[in-house]
Amino acid sequence: MRGLMQERPLLISSFLSFAAIYHKDREIVTRTIEGPIHRYTYADCERRARKLANALKGLGLQFGDVVGTLAWNTYRHLEIWYGVSGQGMVCHTINPRLFPNQIAYIANHAEDKAIFVDLTFVPLVEKLLPHLGNVKHFVIMTDRAHMPATSIPDAICYEELVEGASDDFTWPEFDENTASSLCYTSGTTGNPKGVLYSHRSTALHSMVANGKDALGMGSTDAVLPVVPMFHANAWSIPYGAPMSGAKIVMPGAAMDGASIYELLETEGVTMTAAVPTVWLMLLQYLEKDGGRTLSTLKRVVIGGSAAPRSMIETFETRFGVSVCHAWGMTEMSPLGTLGSLKAGMEKLPLEERLDIQCKQGRAVFCVEMKITDDDGNELPRDGKAFGHLMVRGPWIAGAYLKGDGGNILDQDGFFDTGDVATLDPEGFMQITDRAKDVIKSGGEWISSIDLENAAVGHPDVAEAAVIGIFHPKWDERPLLIVVRKAGKEIGKEEMLTFLAGKIAKWWMPDDVVFVDELPHTATGKLLKTKLREDFKDYKLPTIVAAE
Ligand code: ADP
After folding, report:
1. Domain positions in the chain
2. Is the dihedral of CA 401, 404, 406, 411 positive or negative?
3. AMP-dependent synthetase/ligase domain spans which residues (predicted)?
């Protein structure tokens, strides 16, 4: 028997139109690309999104067309998200930190009909123009006064486009499984692949992400998504905030410690989210002058890469800010697990609590998870066995755009995340490594992430990476690559002595090298493929000694 409830579609436009009624005066604050702080309300945002929706139709774009963005987190980018998806077009957030040839590849692969560009990225688009022949319109996201002299043909001024359009627009109704937005994986190996979200997947994901044990956003919160809108939907904050009525604070292009600190304090931010590199910059900034406090911030969500233990501890013990460690991926919209403590855990001694918080967290409702061995057999949830992390759920990709990569699900519909992990009896998942980064030593696996985390616990270490180096006896042995903090002198022996006792003896790196900087991916993660390339001829002293 079919239920008798109203079968109303879940549509992205409803997030913003809801906010425009029930939280109409709540602010959206932006550090603009032009410089000044801009502020307006959800009601203003929704009205301008309607104007933009009309303007897009005026440009000849139609339902289902793909519209690209090369843009930071700003109110204009938010208007584009809603103006595009809200009327059934597909909003394609392009990561501007990708290599230029990858950007051209994905704009063509996605068949972008128009691209909205922040001032910062105008030179990039100018360079790519010969490869973007299929893009019909380029819109520069600024006002007339700031329009640059550009070789982009018929470049449109965003403010003129929006303000010149009527706000007489009704958000249309259509099937909730219609595509809403598109985000490419960063493609550290091979070409980037497109993950095509739907209105339904986005709505379900955002509702669960707003939950108390997840991002926990409510109408009294002010949220600062430092994580860019082009990085896995800014972890759904620009969708969940209007649903909950939270104030949004957009950082624009400035993600340095001083700029983020200023916004946190002047805008009364209570929750914020970003990758560890951003928090490293903020904490270093706070360290410079012992007197600074975080007076309103309550919760920081850290994900994208493993949050180091020392970072979680510093936020909590020095600044009274609770850390929620999160894990996910573009293919998962992106949230899979969040590390909110369960009942009773908050009373544990600090060290035991940190042991739990260093794990990547528990699956949120709707995300099914299991770990398997190489033959697909499920492994126990005992916190010890580690295997391939497999996931299934209504906001997890079932296929890549245009069938790239072929069938990506196993016979039960699970997607292989490419991560290796443990699951403990309380449900907490811990990433051991990316399957391709794990170091295989004498038939056993060494977690490069654990070693890196232990190394950055040293006060003189700014950043660390561990890769496997060929070893004739053990197959691979770990090499630790360290960036010292400015003015610090730490050497190999001191580093190894520091690690002793913190890691299994046989995990001890065979060598330590010091470099000025480490390569990163377009989403701020260590670029291990580049490191492996750079160190492919490296000979470990343990081999040299044996020769
Ligand atoms: P990109 O590679 O473009 O940054 P994703 O954001 O989708 O794309 O990357 C997802 C991957 O990032 C995960 O599969 C996992 O390896 C890693 N990751 C995400 N969050 C964490 C975390 N909290 N700890 C460790 N690794 C993480």
Report:
1. 13-200, 368-434, 438-544
2. negative
3. 23-401
Question: Cα(208)–Cα(214) distance, rounded to whole angstroms?
Answer: 7
CATH of domain 13-200: 3.40.50.12780
Judge if 368-434 and 438-544 fold alike in CATH terms.
Answer: no
Taking the alpha carbons of 374, 378, 380, 381 in that order, is the dihedral positive or negative?
positive
- Half-sphere CA count of 491, side-chain side, radius 13 A: 1
| CB 430 less than 6 A from any atom of ligand 1 | no
How far apart are alpha carbons 496 and 512 in whole angstroms?
Answer: 8
450 lines ligand 1 (CB under 6 A): no
pLDDT of residue 237: 98
> Which residue is closest in CA terms to ligand 1's atom 2?
186
The residue whose two tokens read 């910062």 is 120
Q: What is the pLDDT of residues 10-27, one digit of tens each?
A: 999 999 999 999 999 999
**Ligand 1 pocket, residue 205 CB under 6 Å:** no
Homologous superfamily assigned to 438-544: ANL, C-terminal domain (3.30.300.30)
Please count the residues of the chain. 547
How far apart are the CA of 329 and the centre of ligand 1, in A?
5
Query: Does the beta carbon of 176 lie inside 6 Å of ligand 1?
Result: no
Q: What is the pTM of this model?
A: 0.91
The helix (H) or strand (E) run that includes residue 277 is helix 276-288
Instruction: Assess contact for 521 and 186: CB atoms under 8 A.
Output: yes
Contacts of 42 (CB under 8 A, 6+ apart): 16, 19, 20, 23, 24, 25, 26, 28, 242, 245
Residues designated catalytic:
185, 331, 440, 445
Those residues of the chain that have pLDDT short of 70 are 187-189, 544-547
Give the pLDDT of residue 180.
98
DSSP conformation class of 176: T
Task: Provide CATH code, domain 368-434.
Answer: 2.30.38.10
